[in-house]
Amino acid sequence: MRDFLLEILICPSCLPEENYLELKNYIHESNDIVSGNLICNKCGAKYRIENGIAILTPNPNWSPSRYNKYEHPKVISSYLWSHYGDWLNDEEWIPAYPQWASLVNPVIGISLDIGSAVGRTVFELAKKSKFSIGIDLSLSFVKTARELMKYRELNFDLIEEGYITKPAKIKLPDDYRIENIDFIIADALALPFKKEVFRCVLSLNVIDKVPLPFKHIEEINRVSSFKNAQFLISDPFSWNEEVAKVEDWLGGKKEGEYSGYGIENIIEILKNQIYPSWNINHRGEIFWKIRNHRNHFEFIRSLYVKASR
After folding, report:
1. Which residues have CB under 8 Å from 122's CB, separation 6+?
2. Quick one: 65-308 is in which CATH superfamily?
3. What's the pLDDT score for residue 65?
4. What is this structure's pTM?
5. Which of 63, 96, 256, 295 would give a disulfide with 288, using CB separation of 3.0 to 4.6 Å?
6. Which residues, given as ranges, of the chain have pLDDT below 70?
7. pLDDT digits (tens, 9 = 90+) for 231-263
8. Domain boundaries in the chain?
9. What is the DSSP letter of 115?
10. CB 17 within 8 A of CB 40
């Protein structure tokens, strides 16, 4: 865990109270806290730092589930291709993540990417921000992103077909910064950060993957600066009852609260239902791909809203 995070972290178990965390029993190596504990000064909850990764979910005893598809090596291969296919010289790749990052203006402060997966947007935002942070609930995603951050290159097996793979290598270009970024384990519904600390927040393909979508927007609003802030939300709005109850969806239903389309409802929420309100700068769409293997791709359209205040 990077040193700069210590100044902005709070206890996710105590929310909405903001109680600070104290670092104890730690080992520090080259601008990285490789192990230790972060202890809440109010409730006493103890959060682990293991192999450089801070685990800051509301459950201090959190561990990855083997049933979580995002921990599977095949999924890691798919997402590495989606994020870094240009650095693999693959003509099938679509530059979705650089396109999302290009929608962000230079940031005078800290940026946060919620659901950062294997990290491309965080690396892109580091060029525009003082610090750039990515959070995810997949340990495999965070470990993979931090490995690329630490060594500037990553070797992995790209799925070709069935159990056939081929070696692949991602190398971070020389102009990408690594000293001002970090990736941690955290929950999109209980962000372990002080209020108003971020000047830019991104939520890419997350809101239809959380059980309480409105809470996700509230948490983004809490940690975003009241002035000179940017917010980018993008999603295909693939609502699913296995993830969230229909009554909690922010779209995709014919009646009830937040009936209609998700993108329209999110614009209404940002403009009129949270404080301080957001100004809608523009909206659009970005297409992206997931490569399951060399003959099977998923082609997805994510609608986006860029807002500021």
Report:
1. 111, 113, 116, 132, 133, 134, 145, 181, 183
2. Vaccinia Virus protein VP39 (3.40.50.150)
3. 79
4. 0.95
5. 96
6. 67
7. 999 999 999 999 999 999 999 999 999 999 999
8. 1-63, 65-308
9. T
10. no
First to last CA, the chain: 30
Of 202, 182, 70, the closest CA to residue 134 belongs to: 182
Which tokens hold the place of 245? Answer: 């109850």
C-alpha separations of 212 from 187, 209, 271, 306 in Å: 12, 9, 20, 21
Mean pLDDT of the chain: 96
Tens digit of each residue's pLDDT (9 = 90 or more) over 191-200: 999 999 999 9
Look at residues 19, 28, 23 and name the one whose alpha carbon lies nearest to residue 6.
23
DSSP state of 71: G
Q: Which residue in 222, 111, 123, 217 sits closest to 173, CA to CA?
A: 123
Q: Are strands 164-171 and 153-161 parallel, antiparallel or unpaired?
A: antiparallel
Task: Quote the pLDDT of residue 112.
Answer: 98
Question: So what's the pLDDT on residue 31?
Answer: 81
DSSP 242-275: TTS-GGG-SSSBSSSTT-B-HHHHHHHHHHHTSS
pLDDT given for residue 67 in this prediction? 67
CA distance 59 to 66: 17
What is the pLDDT at residue 68? 83
Task: Please answer whether residues 201 and 115 qualify as being in contact, where contact means their C-beta atoms are separated by less than 8 angstroms.
Answer: no
**Residue 77 carries which side chain, given as an amino acid letter?**
S
| Cα–Cα distance measured from residue 9 to residue 12, given in angstroms and rounded to the nearest whole number | 9
**Which residue do the tokens 């040193």 mark?**
3
Distance CA 134, CA 2 (A): 12
What is the per-residue pLDDT across 195-230, written as a single tens digit (0 to 9) for each?
999 999 999 999 999 999 999 999 999 999 999 999
Rounded-to-integer distance, Cα 98 and Cα 120, Å: 8
d(CA 136, CA 204): 12
